[in-house]
Amino acid sequence: MSNEHPVYMGPRLRRLRRELGLTQANMASDLDISASYVALLERNQRPLTADMLLRLARTYKMDMADLAGDGGADQTARLQAALKDPMFADIDMPPLETADVVTGFPGITEAFLRLHTAYREEHLALADRGAEARTGGDGHDSSDPVAEARRFLAARRNNFPSLDDAGEQLAQAVATDGGLAGRLKAKHRLRVRRLPSEVMGGSMRRFDRHRDEVLLDDTLDTASQTFQLALQLAYLEMRSEIDAVLAEGSFATESGERLTHKALASYAAAAVLMPYGAFAQAAEKRRYDVEALARQFGASFEQTAHRLTTLQKPGHERVPFFFIRVDPAGNVSKRLDGVGFPFARHGGACPLWSVHQAFRRPREIITQWLELPDGQRFFSIARTVTAGGGAFGALRVERAIALGCAAEHAGRLIYTQDQPGMGPETATPIGVTCHLCHRTRCTARSAPPIGRQVLPDDFRRASAPFGFSDL
Question: Hey, which CATH number is domain 10-71, 1.25.60.10, 1.20.1530.20, 3.30.70.1450, 1.10.260.40?
Fold first, then answer.
């Protein structure tokens, strides 16, 4: 009796056909089968035979292994990840049933995944509008382009498997061609030149189509130059994948869409420089040592920390991280979340968080356990990073970044080892933002929490900035 089982690859076949720009009739003619049979294959109503796989490989000059793939494992992993949402917690959904749904109803599966992503995005938008209303905003946060881009990334946990897959393939081609500059030369006939800042006119990178050159500011450090070349390559060779991900969003402003496109292009560049499989494996081996990983992959500390927030590819997840970048004035210029950390939607973050104290200890990694008012505990590292500079008198911008994870994952990080007397029980009590934190005795408070009556201090002055009535 044969141990072989039928292989259904409907969604993969449909995606291949669309990528090739073919109709079902076109593909049927190429493969010498009927258009109705192609339709049955795409709906998983017929298995893909070995003979048909061979025809596909020969006709479209593709590798058999690429065509055979994982038989829907990616879709199954995506669906299982979506079903971990707390709103499904009371529903028993065995993994085998999930796999059956993906195999039997690929269209319904994709529709559910799109709907769930849209739900998460709108959920975040609703949270933003509510926070704006509570803090006395003008209610127009939905048209804030920065908020739009952040919601798009947060709704997808800053993870885009299609970009990771394309990035890995491009990374292999880059290695074959002798590096990024070699790839630009071999594939696109582009020469890389480094020019002085005064010649670049305020640009770090510029694509000169007329002279077939990619120009770089020669004051950029090595990691920044490398990233800019990877970014240009992503725009040239991964544009269709980036546009496909962007098309999943709904934007109220053109600026919001452009900011999101920029973020996705940077994601793609990082996927080329730090390919998912190799980077995820190295992260586990080095216990998420950001400095060691940065040196291994030729990236900066910030680029590496940023990449660590993306390691949530369904079926291949690693430690989920959140990331924030602030300037000395407390302005947040970047915020990424793969954990569910309740970042302040408006106003500054808690001043007791070490990310704000990192400026006192430049370039030093500061570790800290954190506890939110609801009892959730996290572990974070903070360090300053520098942008600009590169020459005497050139403007340098100092920022601080923090990278953190939930307490249950902290033991996998190198930063928690050999720290006697340091653990979750020593966590610093912080709040999301002063308006939402009800720790009445916090001496670092800058504003009273919503819903608490401030007491007069005629006869008694509390040590905290505000005295409050009981709830």
Answer: 1.10.260.40
